[in-house]
Design goal:
Layout (H helix, E strand, L loop, with lengths): L2 H11 L7 E5 L10 E6 L4 H14 L4 E6 L1 H7 L1 H4 L3 E2 H5 L5
Length: 97
């Protein structure tokens, strides 16, 4: 699967992603590598527990490497910018080639 296909699959199969900011990063954005780096930024507790369960199911179909951060952590580290993260929504909108 390509990065846009993975983004569409995750957004469709993981309803709880609506409560989070979700990104893809790493070499998989360029069609290189064997796994897909996913960054999830948002609340902890119950919403995160639901999302983790959904991602576990999705991960059975895909090689996902998922990183979770609270909004303050993402801001402090600058991870989104420094790693060139792209939102799953942006990726999902990329036309199939």
């Amino acid at each position: 699967m390509t990065a846009p296909e993975v983004a569409r699959y995750l957004l469709k199969s993981c309803e709880s992603l609506r409560e989070f900011k979700s990104f893809m990063f790493g070499s998989s954005l360029f069609g290189v590598g064997s796994d897909f780096g996913i960054l999830i930024v948002g609340p902890s507790d119950e919403p995160l527990s639901r999302l983790k369960a959904e991602l576990r199911l999705a991960g059975k179909e895909l090689p996902l490497d998922v990183l979770y951060m609270l909004p303050a952590e993402a801001e402090e580290t600058g991870f989104v910018t420094s790693e060139g993260c792209i939102t799953l929504a942006q990726l999902a909108d990329i036309e199939k080639t």
